[in-house]
Structure formats: structure tokens, C-alpha cells
Write a structure and sequence with these properties.
Number of strands of chain B: 9
Strand content of chain A: under 5%
Helix content of chain A: 40-55%
Radius of gyration of chain A: 20 Å
Order of helices and strands of chain A: HE
Shape of chain A: rod-shaped
Order of helices and strands of chain B: HHHHHEEHHHHHHEHEEHEEHHEE
Helix content of chain B: 55-70%
Largest interface: A-B, 35 and 41 residues
Distance between the termini of chain B: 94 Å
Number of helices of chain B: 15
Shape of chain B: elongated
Largest sheet of chain B: 5 strands, mixed
Radius of gyration of chain B: 43 Å
Number of strands of chain A: 1
Oligomer: heterodimer
Strand content of chain B: 5-15%
Structural class of chain A: mainly alpha
Number of helices of chain A: 1
Structural class of chain B: alpha+beta
Largest sheet of chain A: none
Chain lengths: 55, 560
């Protein structure tokens, strides 16, 4: 089976890897290290006034 | 097992009230592991874009499974839940992209064109950006220990996944529509439906969950997401079938090995949930037994395959040699044909002039020269007959022998041949008799000249191999089987079973031929049989043994 040119292969590999790694690291840093997320304790505290009665 | 990891007793209680922890582990771990083992195996065996894509699908599935499991284990803390919940979407959409690449490369036997990679990247990128920027989740909802999803990013994810699924269906349909080869079509249909069912299970389960959350008040909607995981075993079954039935991915051993791996996976995964010692002993013993039997099974299959491959190589060599032999045989026939044609004309001249000299056309010849001249005539006559035989053989083998079929009486023909050959028989001291057992003329449809040649050949042969006694020609017909027969019975040297078996071959002469001092090329019976068979007849021979005479039967279908 023929593959595309090597340069294109490397670019794609890097693009996919960077996308996955960057997303993972940023998310890890934001949510696990910084714990930067909204902690909703009850329905009155819900973001964007979601109807949380179904949860 | 989990006590030391529990960060939130409340969430632990909340989870175990909703769903069995064992079931959760049991649905996620073995499938992901099995799929991973399978794909690594495929990748190791065959390094190409199809196997690599399959590996990436299953890798994404395994990571997805692991993340999903982690997201379920809410008692590990809010940060853990939020992190894993975020990344699930990324691997979900990547899995769809690799599925498309897998089907594309399977169908077209080549990697995706570059622009399709960029389109894929463009479709995946928004999900990655939304995850990175924290737009995909609105927050952590403590009462249910779950993350709150942002419907915009969820709907975008479904859109991207649906585009990949649609593309898979479209390329498969487009390819199957133009393909002629049934095997290839079936393989593509199997691959496309296996992958589509797998992805549909996945997508549908997610959409059902979103629908339940947004539009109903169903209790524990995320439980339904687990059903999506059943798509993977279905895909594996499809792939397994492809491997076994079509030898796809060039894996012949995979059938046996996948069976062992599945058994081992199922039996071993039970070990996680066993609490009593006797159960543990039985399970460990079962695992060991599966390993031992599996080893022997795989080894025997391996040996069988090696044997089969060796036989295939031998068969191929043999086929090649056979083709070469046929070519040589054809060349030989052509050579014989050309050579014989060149011999024929001078021979005719030699025979003609020898005959004329003998008859005194050029005046009286000295008494001393008479015998040599007779020998020249006799030898050239025999030589001309041999040349005719060679020419006939080359015509039969090249398929250029022409048969002019007409209806005639076989019994009358046999009688005429007997009359023709009687003087020669009498000269040799033999009795040649003809008898007809039929009330009719026995009409057959064949080339009369060729049948005359056949009967002459057979009777002449009988006379050659009969030093003394009788040669009988009997005409018979069988109304039941609608066959006409000419049977030639002699009291000659007979033949062994060994000779009878090879009698109708080319250049075959009886072992005892020299004992009766017979000239011959060993082609007469071969030509007779070939010509008869070409006209729908048969020629058979039998003998009770050496010295006990022979019986030759010429058979043709009766004409109504």
C-alpha cells in the first residue's frame, strides 16, 4: 500500500499529536491543578439558569 | 479495593446506589483490553495503513473506555470527574475519524488523500478547542456527582461524528456500486456494516442520553451510555468473520488465537470479582487450563498452516512445470507435423518409382536387383504409413483434425474391411472371419473414412500380434443402450494387465511385441481411440493374460 509523502505524514502526525497532547495538558492544568471549574452545590446555584430538577 | 481512593463518601454511596461497581468494571475493562490486544496483534502482523487505522480505532476506544470508567468513578473527586469527562469527547470523535480512515484504506488499498486529513482535522479541531477552553462543560453538579455538559459542544460533537459515519456509508456505497468481484463486494459490505454498527451503537447511546437529560426526567440517564460499548464486540465479531472467511488482514492464525484470547479475557476478568477462596482456586485453575490448551491449539493450527503453505508452494511449482511441459509437447507436435510433411513428398516419389521399376515400366531388371527393389518398395510403404501416423497425432493434438460426419452402416463397413484385409491374413496363415449378430445395418453418424481407418488399425493390430489362429470381427448392436459395436477377437499373444492399462498411450508397444517381430510406431491404437472419442465413441481392450488372445471393442452411438 502506498502512503502519502513522508513530509505530509510527519506534519499530520505532529498536528494530531499536538492537538491531543495540548488539549490533555491544558485540560489537566485547568481542571486538576487549578481546579478551575464551577462547583454547583444546588439548583439555585446552577450556571446559565439550567433547569437541574432532572438530575 | 477502592476504599483508600475514596475522596467523597457521598459520591461513592450515590454511585453504588445507582449501578453495580462490578458491572461497571466488567463492561469496560475486558472489551477495551480484548480490542487492544486484537489490534496490536493485527498491527504487529501487518504494518500497513489498514492495520494502523484499526489499531488507532481500538486505541481511541480503549482510552475512551478508560476515561468513561474513570468518569463513572465519581468518588475519586470532582477534579478527576471533570478532567476525564472533558477528554471523552475528543477520543470519541477521533475514533470516528480513524474508523473512516480504516474503511477508506480497506476499500481503496491506499491511505487517505492529504486533503481528507485536513478536512478531518478541521472537523475534530473545534471539539479540541472547546475542551481546552473549558466550553464543553458548564460545571460540576455536586448533588449527582456529575459534570454538566454544554449542549452546543455536545451537538457539535454529534454533528462531526455523524459526518464521519455518513462519509463511511457513502464511500462504501459508491465502491460497492461499481465493483464486479463478488468476494470484494462482500468484504466491503462486511467491513462497512461492522464499522457502521459499532459507531451507530456508540452515537445512538450518546444521543439517547442527551435526549433523556434534556427532554425527560428519566432517572440515571448516563446508565444508558454503557450500552454503546456493546458496539465493540460486534465490530470484533465482524472482523473475526472477515479473517476466518476471507483471510482478511493476512492473519490465518487469528481465528484460534482470538478464540483463546476471548476465553482467557472472559475467564480472567472473573478473577476481579471473586471473594471466596474456593472460587478463586477454581478460577485460577480454569485460567491455567485455558492457557495450556490454548498453547497446544495454537501450536497445532500453526503447524497445519505451515504444512498447507508448503503444499500450496509445491502445487504452484507443479502447475508451472505442467504449463512448460504442455508448451514443449505443442512444440514437439509442430515439429513432427513439419518434418512429416517434408518426408511425405519424397517418400511418395520413392514408392512410385520403386513400384514402376518392379513392374518393369523401365524395362527388364536383372534378377539380382529384384529383391532389393521389393525391399525398397516395402520399406517405403511402411515409412509412408508411419508418416501418416505422425501427421494424424499432430493433427489430433493441435485440434486440427477434421471430421466429416454422415450416416452409414457400421456392419457393412466392418464387412468391407474384413474383405480388404483377408488376403493379407491368408498370406500370413491366419483365418479372418466376419459375422454380424444384428438384424439391422447398424446405422451410425460419424466420419466413414476415419471409422474405416480405426477398424483397419484394430484388425491390423490383431493380425500383427497373432502368429497363428483366427481373427474374428463381430458386429453387434444393443437396442437398450443404443450402441453399435464392432468386436475384434484374436487368438494371439494377449497381454498382461500392466500392458492393457497403458495400451492406448502414445508410442506404446506391447512388452512382448518383439517376440512376434512386429513393426510399428505404437501410435495406431492411440490415434484410433482419439478419433473414436472425438466422434462420441469408445475403444476398449481386454485380455485374459499373456498367450490368451485379446478382445478389442469399438463402440459408437446408434443412429435412430
Amino acid at each position: 500500500m502506498e502512503r502519502n509523502s513522508q513530509a505530509a505524514d510527519i506534519i499530520l502526525f505532529v498536528a494530531f499529536s499536538v492537538m491531543i497532547l495540548l488539549t490533555t495538558i491544558i485540560t489537566w492544568y485547568r481542571l486538576v491543578i487549578m481546579e478551575n471549574f464551577r462547583y454547583v452545590v444546588d439548583d439555585n446555584d446552577s450556571p446559565e439558569r439550567l433547569d437541574l430538577s432532572t438530575y | 479495593m477502592f476504599e483508600s481512593l475514596i475522596k467523597s463518601q457521598y459520591c461513592y454511596q450515590y454511585l453504588t446506589d445507582q449501578i453495580s461497581l462490578d458491572l461497571l468494571l466488567y463492561t469496560h475493562i475486558p472489551t477495551a483490553l480484548l480490542a487492544l490486544i486484537f489490534s496490536v496483534y493485527v498491527l504487529v502482523r501487518r504494518r500497513d495503513v489498514v492495520s494502523a487505522s484499526l489499531f488507532f480505532i481500538v486505541l481511541c476506544f480503549s482510552i475512551w473506555s478508560f476515561l468513561d470508567l474513570n468518569a463513572w468513578l465519581v468518588f475519586l473527586g470532582a477534579d478527576n470527574t471533570m478532567f476525564t469527562w472533558s477528554l471523552i469527547d475528543l477520543f470519541g470523535v477521533l475514533m470516528f475519524f480513524f474508523s473512516y480512515r480504516f474503511v477508506y484504506s480497506f476499500i481503496y488499498k491506499t491511505d487517505l488523500p492529504i486533503y481528507q486529513y485536513y478536512v478531518g482535522l478541521l472537523l475534530i479541531a473545534p471539539t479540541a478547542v472547546m475542551i481546552g477552553a473549558g466550553h464543553n462543560l458548564l460545571g460540576y453538579y455536586a448533588p449527582t456527582c456529575e459534570a454538566l455538559e454544554n449542549s452546543t459542544s455536545t451537538y457539535y460533537l454529534y454533528f462531526a461524528q455523524a459526518v464521519f459515519l455518513g462519509a463511511i456509508l457513502w464511500i462504501s456505497y459508491a465502491r460497492v456500486r461499481v465493483l464486479q468481484d463478488v468476494h470484494e463486494r462482500t468484504q466491503i459490505l462486511l467491513i462497512a456494516s461492522g464499522v457502521s454498527i459499532f459507531l451507530l451503537f456508540f452515537l445512538t447511546a450518546s444521543i439517547v442520553v442527551t435526549f433523556l437529560i434534556n427532554y425527560t426526567s428519566a432517572a440515571n440517564p448516563y446508565n444508558y451510555e454503557i450500552y454503546g460499548l456493546f458496539g465493540m464486540p460486534i465490530l470484533l465479531i465482524y472482523l473475526g468473520y472477515l479473517i476466518v472467511r476471507y483471510k482478511a488482514f493476512d492473519i490465518k492464525l487469528a481465528g484460534a488465537q482470538a478464540l483463546i484470547a476471548t476465553l482467557l479475557g472472559l475467564v480472567a476478568s472473573k478473577l476481579f470479582f471473586i471473594s471466596s477462596t474456593p472460587d478463586l482456586v477454581v478460577s485460577v485453575a480454569t485460567v491455567l487450563l485455558v492457557i495450556i490448551f490454548g498453547y497446544f491449539l495454537v501450536r497445532s493450527v500453526k503447524r497445519e498452516i505451515r504444512e498447507k503453505e508448503r503444499n500450496e508452494v509445491l502445487a504452484k511449482d507443479l502447475a508451472k512445470a505442467n504449463v512448460r511441459l504442455r508448451e514443449l509437447d505443442k512444440l514437439k507436435s509442430e515439429f513432427v507435423s513439419i518434418a512429416s510433411h517434408q518426408l511425405r513428398s519424397p517418400l511418395t516419389a520413392i514408392r512410385g518409382y520403386a513400384s514402376m521399376l518392379n513392374e518393369g515400366s523401365f524395362g527388364a531388371i536383372p534378377e539380382k536387383a529384384r529383391e532389393p527393389l521389393q525391399r525398397i518398395e516395402e520399406s517405403s510403404r511402411f515409412m509412408a504409413l508411419s508418416v501418416d501416423d505422425f501427421l494424424n497425432v499432430s493433427r489430433i493434438e493441435s485440434g486440427s483434425m477434421k471430421y466429416e460426419k454422415a450416416i452409414f452402416s457400421l456392419s457393412k463397413l466392418a464387412s468391407a474391411v474384413a474383405d480388404d484385409l483377408r488376403p493379407a491374413a491368408t498370406k500370413k496363415g491366419l483365418v479372418l472371419v466376419y459375422r454380424s449378430d444384428s438384424d439391422t445395418d447398424m446405422h451410425v453418424k460419424a466420419d466413414e473414412g476415419k471409422i474405416r481407418q480405426v477398424i483397419q488399425n484394430v484388425v491390423d493390430n490383431a493380425m500383427k500380434y497373432t502368429p497363428k489362429g483366427t481373427v474374428s470381427i463381430v458386429a453387434q448392436d444393443d437396442e437398450k443402450t443404443k450402441r453399435a459395436r464392432v468386436i475384434v477377437v484374436d487368438t494371439g499373444v494377449g497381454m498382461s494387465e500392466e500392458t492393457a492399462a497403458t495400451l492406448f498411450g502414445k508410442f506404446v508397444r506391447a512388452k512382448n511385441a518383439n517376440s512376434v517381430n512386429v513393426y510399428g510406431t505404437g501410435l495406431g491404437l492411440f490415434i484410433a481411440k482419439q478419433m473414436l472419442e472425438a466422434m462420441g465413441g469408445t475403444l476398449t481392450a481386454k485380455s485374459d493374460g499373456e498367450g490368451k488372445g485379446s478382445t478389442f471393442t469399438i463402440e459408437l452411438p446408434l443412429e435412430a
